[in-house]
Every structure is written in structure tokens, then in C-alpha cells.
DNA sequence: AAGTGACCTGG
DNA sequence: CAGGTCACT
């Protein structure tokens, strides 16, 4: 069976793939020619977008070739940032759904597919370059493609009507109204809490290019499921159990994690002591305040990282991570409403979150990500203002990150 | 409670 | 110094 593109209708105002996947929420999507590729829900995806549709294809499943990593074994370095893939759309790899090891997650997704509210965004399958239909069905009677669609709907949270939210935020906030037109379609992903948490533990006092590399090395070293295609290896994110093992801190230090190596090791062990990954998933059922308090007990997790996890994988739509970047935005664009202060204390941190929640409402965290993205250096070219001289000066070939 | 410094590494 | 956290005045 050949892989092929499928698509569903979706406007760029509802979801801008490029912005959403590159605005610092997730660190593992790779820009490849004509598409974005990455691992999600046990599958290796390629995604792209037209003016009217999101296009997607699954090119493999992690776990097809289980190769448990052994501590001490040297992993061969692969530049998955720039996969060498033929433009040829047909890939001969068979999808072996009967061998799919990720049945637990799959079941969860199917359940969500059955129960999710579908009236907001209607999904209709469009076959663009298909050669044959996917006929494999699960016990629940779903085709592989039914599952793919539910995975994407869940990950991109397509039941949330983003254009309505933008409208509301614009009405409530003049500054948002001024900035947002060049940054439409930025929505919160609903990430896997494990990947989200450990990735953002790596983010402390660190920059994006390095975080991406660290997450990549974390996967190379501790992922238990992977899939190789055209010389590129795609990894499932490591399990908490794998990260809780003996000697993890030492190995991660050697891999350049610095003091975050201890954070990762201790946090993994703490989670295992609480009952494993299910403990983390269960934070979704708590209130924002409760979930944040639990997260802040973890090593290497302060207010900012806790808010990132609450917002990006625990469904706390009002959580607002206040980092130095947001701090700058506040002092530059909202200082008239909030007294300008010198340092970011616990008190100020809370005041800023409350301030934005009061303005933007229950989805304040989503709104925050729009302004955050609009402030990223790499997106400055999107701004219509002609004063791009400061940016042009810096436009060296610094395309090191994905 | 606000302020200060160390902590890993690399651009 | 960089999209922080932790320990300690």
C-alpha cells in the first residue's frame, strides 16, 4: 500500500500550520521541503496546508522496528532536521496496524473521536493523490484514517473556534487588535503531557535552538520506539519509566544537558513514585490552580514551566506562562495598565496572569501565545511595518533550527 | 517579600 | 546573555 495525501477543509485563520508548529510550543516538528514532519500519537506524519485545506499523510508508525536503546551504546547521529526524502509521494512502507504497539493511546484517541463535538468543524475526507483506500479496521470499526483525523482534531483542538476567540480578544484589547491581523491562525496544541513537561524542563535559562537539540538527543538516547525511513529515524518520546532509570543524570550530563540533567532524572523518578504517567495525565482532571501546584513540586519546575504544561497539555486555557519575553511585552505594551516594576517576583507574576485573564477571558493563555509569537524574532518579517532594518541586519543564514 | 547569585552550555 | 529554577539573604 502506498501512502498518499488526504485533506480536510480548514482555513488559515482557524489554523496556520507554520505559525502554530513553530511558535515555541513544540520542539519536534521539522520543516521539510513542502511539508512539516514529525511524530504524533505513535505515527510519523507529514503535514501541509493550502488556502482551504490541511493536508496530511502518515508515512509510518513508530514501534514498527522496536530497537530498545541500551545505555552505553553509541547512537548513530542522524540529522533528522533535514531528512533526505525523495519528493516521490509513494512510499513503499506498509502500514502494519495490526502490529501497532501503541494501542492504549489509540484507544484513547478513538474514544475522543466518538465523543468529541463535531459540529464546529466539519471534516470531510478528500482524496488527492490516493492510490488505494485504507480498509484496515479496528475492533471499534474505525479505519486507520478515521483515527488519523481524530488524532489531528484532538491535537489541533479544532473544536475550538479560533476566529471567534480572536474577535473577542480584539474587542477587549486594543493592542491585541493592532498586533493580531498579521498573526492569525495561531492556536494552542493539545500536546502529550510527558513530552511537554520534559521538553520545557529543558527550556529553563536556555534558547530554542539548543532546546530542540536537547530534546532530540533525549529521544535518541531513551526512546523505546522508533521508525526509520530513508536514513532518518523518527522517535517516540521516551517514557517516564525510561527516564527514571539508573544513571540517567550522568548520561544526560554527558549529552550536554547541564544542570537540567538532574531535573529530568528527579522528575521522572518522582512521577514513577506517584504511579507513573497516569498521574501526570490525571492532572487534566484537576483545576488550574491544583494542577499547577502539583507540577511545581517537581524538580526543575517553577511557575513558568508549570504554566507552560498547564496551558499546552493539561487543558488549562487560562494559564499564562510569564517568561522574560512576556515580561518585556508587559512592560512595553501594557505598562500603563500595570505598574512598571523592576523584577519579576512571585507577586508580579501572579498579577500579570490575573491582569491578562481579566482582559482576555477564559482562553487568555491562547491569546498570550499570539502576542508571544508576534514578538519572536523569526516572525518579525510578517509585520507589515516597513521598519525592518534592524531585522535585515541580522538576517544571516542562521537557519540552524528545524 | 523583594533581591541576588550560581547553575551547564553555546552562539 | 539566553523563553528559569533553586537556595539563601
UniProtKB/TrEMBL annotation:
<dbReference type="InterPro" id="IPR052054">
    <property type="entry name" value="Oxidative_DNA_repair_enzyme"/>
</dbReference>
<dbReference type="GO" id="GO:0140078">
    <property type="term" value="F:class I DNA-(apurinic or apyrimidinic site) endonuclease activity"/>
</dbReference>
<comment type="function">
    <text>DNA repair enzyme that incises DNA at 8-oxoG residues. Excises 7,8-dihydro-8-oxoguanine and 2,6-diamino-4-hydroxy-5-N-methylformamidopyrimidine (FAPY) from damaged DNA. Has a beta-lyase activity that nicks DNA 3' to the lesion.</text>
</comment>
<dbReference type="GO" id="GO:0006285">
    <property type="term" value="P:base-excision repair, AP site formation"/>
</dbReference>
<keyword id="KW-0511">Multifunctional enzyme</keyword>
<feature type="compositionally biased region" description="Basic and acidic residues">
    <location>
        <begin position="91"/>
        <end position="104"/>
    </location>
</feature>
<feature type="compositionally biased region" description="Basic residues">
    <location>
        <begin position="391"/>
        <end position="402"/>
    </location>
</feature>
<feature type="compositionally biased region" description="Basic and acidic residues">
    <location>
        <begin position="381"/>
        <end position="390"/>
    </location>
</feature>
<dbReference type="GO" id="GO:0005634">
    <property type="term" value="C:nucleus"/>
</dbReference>
<dbReference type="InterPro" id="IPR012904">
    <property type="entry name" value="OGG_N"/>
</dbReference>
<dbReference type="InterPro" id="IPR023170">
    <property type="entry name" value="HhH_base_excis_C"/>
</dbReference>
<dbReference type="InterPro" id="IPR011257">
    <property type="entry name" value="DNA_glycosylase"/>
</dbReference>
<comment type="similarity">
    <text>Belongs to the type-1 OGG1 family.</text>
</comment>
<dbReference type="Pfam" id="PF00730">
    <property type="entry name" value="HhH-GPD"/>
</dbReference>
<feature type="domain" description="HhH-GPD">
    <location>
        <begin position="202"/>
        <end position="376"/>
    </location>
</feature>
<keyword id="KW-0227">DNA damage</keyword>
<dbReference type="Pfam" id="PF07934">
    <property type="entry name" value="OGG_N"/>
</dbReference>
<keyword id="KW-0378">Hydrolase</keyword>
<keyword id="KW-0234">DNA repair</keyword>
<feature type="region of interest" description="Disordered">
    <location>
        <begin position="61"/>
        <end position="104"/>
    </location>
</feature>
<dbReference type="GO" id="GO:0006289">
    <property type="term" value="P:nucleotide-excision repair"/>
</dbReference>
<dbReference type="GO" id="GO:0003684">
    <property type="term" value="F:damaged DNA binding"/>
</dbReference>
<dbReference type="GO" id="GO:0034039">
    <property type="term" value="F:8-oxo-7,8-dihydroguanine DNA N-glycosylase activity"/>
</dbReference>
<feature type="compositionally biased region" description="Basic residues">
    <location>
        <begin position="71"/>
        <end position="80"/>
    </location>
</feature>
<keyword id="KW-0456">Lyase</keyword>
<protein>
    <recommendedName>
        <fullName>N-glycosylase/DNA lyase</fullName>
        <ecNumber>4.2.99.18</ecNumber>
    </recommendedName>
</protein>
<feature type="compositionally biased region" description="Polar residues">
    <location>
        <begin position="81"/>
        <end position="90"/>
    </location>
</feature>
<dbReference type="InterPro" id="IPR003265">
    <property type="entry name" value="HhH-GPD_domain"/>
</dbReference>
<feature type="region of interest" description="Disordered">
    <location>
        <begin position="381"/>
        <end position="402"/>
    </location>
</feature>
<keyword id="KW-0539">Nucleus</keyword>
<keyword id="KW-0326">Glycosidase</keyword>
